[in-house]
From TrEMBL:
Residues 17-94 form the Thioredoxin domain. This is Thioredoxin domain-containing protein. It comes from the Eukaryota. Pfam families: Thioredoxin (PF00085). It comes from Setaria italica. Gene3D superfamilies: Glutaredoxin.
């Protein structure tokens, strides 16, 4: 599990009912540019907070807007950003690697 790993975990909290346009906008950016840029140094997971299986995350992470990116390292949140800007997200992920 990523929690016990020293790799960074990037959770993309997205929606399939609410905010679908902004979440769909980010999908090709993540898959085509951001994930490959980190060359396996981070785990990337997408959680649909509109799905009944993951609705608890909406409350737990206090989601107010989507897409919401939560960066976790060693089981602790180290950074978080709501954005559709590729450069902002890259900067936030890079900052999450800092000790």
């Amino acid at each position: 599990m990523a929690k016990k790993d020293s790799k960074l975990l990037v959770l993309e909290l997205m929606g399939s009912v609410n905010y679908t346009t902004t979440c769909e906008f980010m999908r090709p950016i993540l898959d085509g540019k951001i994930v490959p840029a980190f060359g396996g140094s981070a785990y990337f997971y997408k959680l649909d907070v509109d799905n009944h299986e993951f609705k608890g995350f909406k409350t737990k992470w206090k989601v107010q807007a989507l897409p919401d990116f939560v960066m976790v390292k060693n089981g602790k949140q180290v950074n978080r950003l709501v954005t559709t800007d590729k450069d902002e997200l890259m900067t936030a992920i890079n900052a999450a690697f800092e000790p």
